[in-house]
């Protein structure tokens, strides 16, 4: 009998500090009307000096563990999707593994930007389905506000910080769990969104780094064009591989980057608005945190219930994109 990776618990955490569009307008030449009409964002949560992916991941993970009833020492693996990890190394997942007391677990980070949670869930499901792990903690977390250029109005208005966590458990013959996953990439698009400095090619303080920006660079129009195509394509592909149709989806939980991108994916799938979960207005784009925060909120609100078919889809720097189809 085959094993499915079933979601047993969820949790999320965001920094308490809220930055509204109006407050942002006092920092750069922008306004609430422009930001809201182009992106659907009204506010975002911003981390302070002591808030990091680790601290946010820890809070979200403790909530997810409590919600699932799974003990940390029973975890076999800790996976953290992030591109803003606390340090170059060790991985944020190792810091988390220690702090929660997952004494018998392996730990690794997944660097797939805003698709980090989609990629991490795919890894967890594969480990569980092949019998390599039984219980896995997956976290999506980013604090992009620490590496955006706060003088660049075309990028700084988009991002917020936050973490979401889920506990997956292998269950034989289960109807519920991760049904299908697709992962895609196109590295030729690295030029459209990147943060070059700080790696080993352009180390901080080196002559090679000097002429380059140390902050996030993004060509918004190119990323927008890519995202509209990629979101729809990944959804159709994962549904086709599962031999399912869009009308069988009970809840669509897309990466929360921009309401217009979400809307174009909704139209491509021909889904009614009430089947689409949206919180980009309150959180902005929290990168790898975006989808698991939405899943956790949807659960808290009673919008997402056991047995429902959930379609999640994400895209990000790489370029990378993918989708997870889950029976909740
Ligand atoms: N406030 C006011 N005006 C602005 C702002 C701002 N915050 N930002 C840009 N503008 C101006 C521009 O300067 C431009 O002015 P101009 O015509 O005088 O030159 C005008 O507004 C239009 O700019 P566009 O870039 O064409 O605006 P657009 O409607 O395309 O929206 C946006 C820009 C919101 C960035 C859009 O392109 C987008 O959402 N792209 C996708 C970004 C994304 O999702 N990134 C996440 C990547 S995932 C990851 O891995 C992190």
Task: Write out key terms for the chains shown.
alpha/beta; Peroxisomal Thiolase, Chain A, domain 1; 2 domains; five-stranded mixed β-sheet; binds acetyl coenzyme *A
Summarize the structure in short:
By secondary structure, the protein is of the alpha/beta class. Helix content is 31%, strand content 25%. The protein folds into two domains: 172 residues, Peroxisomal Thiolase, Chain A, domain 1 (3-Layer(aba) Sandwich); 150 residues, Peroxisomal Thiolase, Chain A, domain 1, CATH 3.40.47.
Describe the structure.
This protein folds into two domains: 3-174, 3-Layer(aba) Sandwich (Peroxisomal Thiolase, Chain A, domain 1); 178-327, Thiolase/Chalcone synthase (Peroxisomal Thiolase, Chain A, domain 1, 3-Layer(aba) Sandwich), CATH 3.40.47.10. The chain is built from ten helices and 13 strands. The protein has helices at 21-24, 32-39, 53-68, 92-100, 116-129, 153-156, 220-241, 259-269, 280-283, 290-300, and strands spanning 3-13, 18-20, 43-45, 77-81, 106-110, 135-143, 161-172, 177-185, 193-194, 217-218, 251-254, 309-316, 320-327. The strands form four sheets. It has a five-stranded mixed beta sheet, sandwiched between helices. The model has no long low-confidence stretch (mean pLDDT 97). It binds acetyl coenzyme *A. Acetyl coenzyme *A (ACO) binds at residues 30, 34-35, 38-39, 113-114, 153-154, 157-158, 193, 218, 220-221, 223-224, 227, 257-258, 285, 287, 316-317.
List the domain count as a whole number.
Answer: 2
Proportion of residues in β-strands: 15-25%
CATH class of the largest domain: Alpha Beta
Order of helices and strands: EEHHEHEHEHEHEEEEHEHHHEE
List the ligand species: acetyl coenzyme *A
The oligomeric status of these chains comes to single chain
How would the global form be characterised?
globular
Largest beta sheet, briefly? 5 strands, mixed
Task: Provide the low-confidence segments as ranges.
Answer: none
The CATH topology of the largest domain is Peroxisomal Thiolase, Chain A, domain 1
Helix content: 25-40%
- Under the CATH scheme, the architecture of the largest domain is 3-Layer(aba) Sandwich
CATH superfamily of the largest domain: Thiolase/Chalcone synthase
Extended strand count: 13
Alpha-beta classification: alpha/beta
N-to-C span: 20 Å
Spatial sequence of strands, sheet with the most strands: 1-7-6-4-5
